[in-house]
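Project standup — Tuesday

K.O.: blocked on the structure for the chain from last sprint. Re-posting the sequence here as requested.
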Amino acid sequence: MSKEYTPKYKDIGGQAVMEGVMMQSPANESMAIAVRKPDGRILVTCEHKAPAAKKHKWMGWPIIRGCVNMVVMLKMGMQTLDKSTQMLGILEEEPTKFEKWLAEKLGANIDKVVMAVAMVLAVVLSLFLFVFLPSGAATLIGKFTDSRILINLMAGVTRIAILVAYIWAVALMPDIKRTFMYHGAEHKTVYCNEAGEELTPENARKFSRLHPRCGTAFLFLVMIISILIGSVADELIYLLFGIEKLSFLLRFGRSLLILPVVTGVSYEVLKGLAHAGDHIIVRALRWPGLMLQHLTTREPDDAMLEVAIASMKAAKAGAERYADELDENVFLYVEGEEEKTEEKDGANA
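H.V.: unblocked you, prediction finished:
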């Protein structure tokens, strides 16, 4: 039986990447990426990542930090996925003519332009799926009822249905399925670290692949909290402007305006639930987000756990010391020399 959530210390977390895992340690302000090459070798790299709140204190304020974290994680997610493909030596797709033209006009690096275009497309797709379509569903149900709570409930149910359908569909792809297995390896390794146990595949295997601080749980919270905040916003609009029912365009605009508030509140709730102990009410509130992780995680094999552990150890050691503490079967990734790696002894010479 999998061990239950017993948080102890160190909010180290991460994400699955291409054939690997990224781990981030707030204590060390470090981010590590470990991937397994097709020949079986594990490559690791680690760099310093100072939190945005260290430079701008207001970015660490409650509610605001949730919005900042969402933007940072979106950008970091793209960067780590790109980094993992570099570490694996996978050839990236040829930039499109538009991307080349944009890079030339802006005088920017083509890689940065490709990354920016990818982020914009991701945001546009997310807004279409989780704001535009739910707004349409809410407007449609508004033709049959005057209940603002029921209208917002329909929007929330539509978001959840789209999220579940999207995750289920992409999980059918073999590459995504493997990524979800690495996602499970990340969670088991995080649990193992939080429990203070030695980081080994044998120890990590005992833990659950469902973790309350997962981004999947955050997405589910956003869906639920958007129903509550949306209902409150509609009541305020009615009281201030006398508008009983929002048109599609007004509802779409209102959804965009309250998105930062929804994101910020969801982040605070997620952090609170993750550290709120094991009370029955807390478990009940965590339960939906954990259940959704049955779709976004899979049971990993020991080879995947080894990769997640390598990333965890590097993140805990920090960017300055990780190269001195690599296991004997782990190699350093050398920037710009994807086909050349150095063993621990050679790196320390």
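K.O.: great, moving the ticket to review. Strands lie at 13-17, 20-25, 30-36, 42-48, 330-333, 341-342. The longest helix spans residues 110-141.
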